[in-house]
């Protein structure tokens, strides 16, 4: 049994035989369902790109819990430079395994910077935890190579941005669902800030019977 808890924006906690955080932007996140200090046992923290709303509290949580930060090689180097003592696993697009968790870093069409200077490139992650395959798309536009993710790995749960402005909107994310063929899809990266205000019901309607859309409010959990 794997529990997927939506923490608001693009932040998720995935609990199973390992506890994983993805893009833990909590401090300064108006929709955050948790505080960084709420997390006591964290094994891995996955960061999709260098923007502040994705690195978020990763370093603070890693320092306190000893969690390893998994990120694009250049972003991992950037994080460790000013934060000696944290453990980072720098990787690049491709598969790896960390502490028994299969992780594939996959491309995302988005920028990656500290707000000004480029740091690495943006990615998504496909993780397999206890037999459940979860795709966190990061911030991205839709692209047809998403079909490859379905072909190569098979996706149980897709976490897709639908807010528009910085990422796909509902129309593009519904097309992504056609390519990914996930059993379940959870929309994210919307309603946090005015430019990404969206109605998730619009996305659900566009997806129709192509997948099962699970709309989580920040703090809610989906179990599979
Ligand atoms: Ni971004
Ligand atoms: Mn973002």
How would you describe this protein?
There is one protein chain. This protein has a seven-stranded mixed sheet with strand order 6-5-4-3-2-1-14, with helices on one face. Strands 7-8-9-10-11-12-13 form a seven-stranded mixed sheet. The mean pLDDT is 97. With 224 residues, the chain is of the alpha/beta class. It is built from six helices and 14 strands. It has a single domain, classed as Ribonuclease Z/Hydroxyacylglutathione hydrolase-like (Metallo-beta-lactamase, Chain A, 4-Layer Sandwich), CATH 3.60.15.10. Helix 5 crosses helix 6.
Task: Supply the number of structural domains.
Answer: 1
Oligomer: single chain
Catalogue the unreliable spans: none
Order of helices and strands: EEEEHHEHEEEEEHEHEHEE
What percentage of amino acids are in beta strands?
25-35%
Overall outline: globular
Helix count from the secondary structure assignment = 6
Number of strands: 14
Radius of gyration (Å):
16 Å
CATH class assignment: Alpha Beta
Bin the helical content: 10-25%
Q: What is the terminal-to-terminal distance?
A: 6 Å
CATH homologous superfamily annotation: Ribonuclease Z/Hydroxyacylglutathione hydrolase-like
Name the average pLDDT: 97
Structural class: alpha/beta
- CATH fold type: Metallo-beta-lactamase, Chain A
- Sheet with the most strands: spatial strand order: 6-5-4-3-2-1-14
CATH architecture: 4-Layer Sandwich
What small molecules accompany the polymer chains? nickel (II) ion, manganese (II) ion
Sheet with most strands: 7 strands, mixed
